[in-house]
Amino acid sequence: MGIKDTLVAAAGNAAAQIMGGLDGLFTSDDERLGHQAKIQAIMSDLTKAHLDAAAAQENERTNRHASDMQSDSWLSKNIRPLALVFLILFYTIIAVTDSIGTLAFDVKPAYISLLETLMMTAFGFYFVMRGAEKITKIAKNQ
Description:
85% helix, mainly alpha, 142 residues
């Protein structure tokens, strides 16, 4: 389920809860239905605003990565592979240090979970973006 489905479902649930709370205040069905339509319109506008903001954020992220790749800075072009190298080295150091029985070294589960999430995100992002860059380059050449 994507962000759009999640936001639409949340807006629908919020509108239903609001109407449930306000139901006793209305004297007629027409009045209740009119206010229900207004609340659903407001929630729909809110959902659209959230979706537009998410799309704008993703677009800005894409533009930022594109400008990084076009810059003359060595660091901006190599930050993704450097982050992967750092995470691999850090993980290796922790694994080796933890496996040596004579050292009193214990990695807390919270840090293991955090490192796992960072590595999954970094590796996933790196290889997805590398694939997208190669596909884009191939498409431009054809």
